TrEMBL record:
<comment type="similarity">
    <text>Belongs to the glycosyl hydrolase 43 family.</text>
</comment>
<protein>
    <submittedName>
        <fullName>Family 43 glycosylhydrolase</fullName>
    </submittedName>
</protein>
Amino acid sequence: APEVLLQPATPSDRYHFQSKGNPIITHSYTADPAVLVKGDTLWLYAGHDFAGGQKNYKMKDWLVYATTDMKNWVECPTPLKIGDFAWAKSGDAFAGHVTERNGKYYWYVSTNWSGIGVAVADRPEGPFKDALGKPLLTNKDCFASTHSWACIDPAVFINDDGQAWIFWGNRECYYAKLKPNMVEIDGLIKKIDFNGFSFTEAPWVHKYNNKYYLTYATGFPEKIAYAMADQIEGPYEYKGILNEIAGNSNTNHQAIVPFKGKWYFVYHNGAIETEGTSFSRSICIDKLEYNTDGTIKKIVMTTE
Ligand code: FUB
């Protein structure tokens, strides 16, 4: 079992560590990964769980890590906290996604009850500031949902034509265009038709060989499933389960990215012994491979 070092980054400096297999971070509990590749660096943005037998989510800030070789990592000082969104102070720092446009970095985050906010920074490691002073999206924008946590789990994808899209939701997957300023919705909010397949949360869109891939958590405990389409708005054809329930966590949440010629599947589990649980989760990384027809091989979860 990986050793739990419990050695947090100091607020004023960067903490260097080496990953020794999965989970890749053993000094903090991390969840809901999002990744951004910029030049020779992969930036990993994470939710931050606490240790110690929580019976519910306790998530008050987000974390950022960087690597150039997937082995040696740097944890930067905490770049964003739930308290940075004045309108969401009592919320939870749920899943987010960072994307770059015109030299600015936009971090779309779930605040759980209060909606989805967006923070902006000049550098990938922040510091990030609330860009709007209000939510970008709220439960009212989740027109087909009635539960209070429908407006979570944003994922942004910038298409080859430069159009940015945001996907999000719990139980229903919503999507919309973003204006070029990245902080306003452009036009109608729509819903993905899963054709009877069940969507729980955690959408992530990527493109490979002219196909759009929508990966997402399905069921509960969650597995990661995927669907493929020829157009960003679909229709999406269900392709199956990408990975099975991740050890000892009811949720999973994936990010998929190419980096230095290989594709990676980044996700979380509750596998740190003896404290890992659904509320004390840990980010893992495994290789992702395509079949010749563009479908994705099932992810083999490794510990190395
Ligand atoms: O981490 C809190 C929530 O659990 C996320 O927003 C979901 O995707 C699930 O991982």
